[in-house]
Amino acid sequence: MKKNRVSLDDIAKSLSVSRSLVSLVLNGKSEEHGISAETRAKVLDKALELNYKPNHFARGLRLGKSFTIGLIVSDIANSFYSRIARHIEDLAEEHGYNLITCSTDEDIQRELRLIKLLRGKQVDGLIISSSQENADEFLRMKAEGFPVVLIDRYFEGLEVPAVVVNNRSGAEHATNHLFAQGFKRPMALAISPIHVYTIHERVAGYRNEMRNASMSPWIEEVPFDDPFGYVDKLIQRLIQDNQLPDSIFAMNNNLATAALQALRNHNIKVPEQIGLVCFDDVPYFSIINPSITAVAQPIKEICCESFEMLLKLINGDAEDIDFGPTYLPFEFFVRESTNKIN
């Protein structure tokens, strides 16, 4: 015989409290409504004891929401985006939402298909790190009043909330650091497509500082689908031509890893023969030998800011949202990979 689903009324009756009190506690609103910590604990314990499972479908129908949001990133296998997904998943669960995460592989058409797919599943809003060349799709969503927040990437002049770091300034800082350490011929590795906001801005920052130093920018565009193979062949060719740079600026963490692997394959020591700096910091950069100098983005803050913005858009409470980019500060960690040895 099938058991009936445990309801809010069941929990309320067992504790001799009102249904509305139970609802406030289970929806995380006990503190703002003056419900004591002791009462909150009793409700949560009883819900656990009775194996209460909220009926999101019924709740969604009642409130006109699915309580599901979508996250679209370029590559979930990339440490930066996997950590983004982890934090947003935790935030979603904390606020009673489900999360659907998708990867685009920097494919413009795939991204559009994923947006259409998720909207077809009636998600309440989207957080997107976009690979689009223009803002057309986001202008459409804005015109329709659909909640969307951009992270990591932004389109100049687009009045849609976005949470980013100043990529150009971070790249300028990294390039200047190489000069300050005595490196004179840095090569930049940029993942394709270069039109993507983050890479475009990092390339621009590198170009600025190279030109300020009266040097010609040296930029190698690395294909998204084969960074390790391409970088290895590049290093091999530069060795054969006796054209190795004295340092490398990798514009994301996958490129830094590809560079490290290629240099090791060809017995080139870091930093004795080539220095290395990366835009993106990942946990292993601080513990390997040599440790890797890197620009670090505030991942947790990016997630918290963007999720809070999306909730406000979903709930129609967007008065204090900045419809444009919100810039968060980066950190710069100087480590062994740029310790030039004369």
Describe this structure in words.
By secondary structure, this protein is of the alpha/beta class. The strands form 2 sheets. It has a 6-stranded parallel sheet with strand order 2-1-3-4-5-11, sandwiched between helices. Strands 7-6-8-9-10-12 form a 6-stranded mixed sheet, with helices on both faces. The chain contains 12 helices and 12 strands. Helix content is 43%, strand content 16%.
Distance between the ends: 80 Å
For the largest beta-sheet, the strand count, sense and barrel status come to: 6 strands, parallel
Overall shape: it is elongated
Outline the low-pLDDT stretches: none
CATH T-level topology of the largest domain? Rossmann fold
**How do the helices and strands follow one another from N- to C-terminus?**
HHHHEHEHEHEEHEHEHEHEEHEE
Structural class: alpha/beta
Task: Please tell me the overall pLDDT.
Answer: 91
Describe this protein with a few key phrases.
342 residues, alpha/beta, 434 Repressor (Amino-terminal Domain), Rossmann fold, 6-stranded parallel β-sheet, 6-stranded mixed β-sheet, 12 strands
